[in-house]
Design brief:
Blueprint: H1 14-21, H2 25-33, E1 40-42, E2 45-47, H3 50-64, H4 69-81, H5 86-131, H6 136-149
Antiparallel strand pairs: 1-2
Helix pairs in contact: 3-4, 4-5
């Protein structure tokens, strides 16, 4: 007797998906307008399937790594056309590698900007130490205030 390995016919409301993925109903409606999601309707309510949930997960993951919505759409469309997923995997692999190169370039640019800023800070601190050392403690206090405000970012290496 063969077993049915398909997912059960569970559905999700817009609210459930918004809570699970920490996004807004407006975002889900926007993805629907762009053709990335296609929920069923029950009167005026949107009813999302496991497939819609999986597509949303891929959309959000693609956005998180910097893919455009059109690139995400291309990848999702390939999945519909290719049941084995081989074309989707090949296209995704190419897009992901392109994105890795772009992010690595951005990282180099960011590292250079940080180095330049640190050099500027060191020069200003040296200048203040020579001309107005009384201003340095306030500069350190200001630095602490900024670090406190940016509390979500680790600063332990910078100290």
């Amino acid at each position: 007797m063969p077993t049915d390995l398909r997912r059960p016919a569970r559905t999700f409301t817009i609210r459930q998906l918004c809570l699970e993925f920490k996004c807004t109903p407006r975002a889900l409606r926007f993805y629907e307008d762009k053709g990335l999601l296609n929920p069923a309707r029950d009167g005026m309510n949107r009813v999302y399937s496991y497939k819609d949930r999986a597509r949303l997960q891929l959309i959000l993951r693609g956005k998180r790594v910097g893919l455009s919505l059109s690139e995400i759409g291309e990848i999702l469309d390939l999945y519909e056309a290719d049941e084995s997923g081989a074309q989707q995997a090949a296209k995704s692999l190419r897009k992901f590698k392109e994105r890795i190169v772009a992010l690595e370039n951005q990282k180099v640019d960011i590292d250079n900007a940080i180095a330049q800023l640190q050099q500027g800070v060191a020069m200003m601190e040296q200048r203040l130490a020579e001309t107005r050392p009384d201003l340095l403690p306030r500069a350190a206090d200001y630095d602490q205030v900024l670090r406190h405000r940016l509390d979500g970012v680790e600063h332990s290496e910078a100290k």
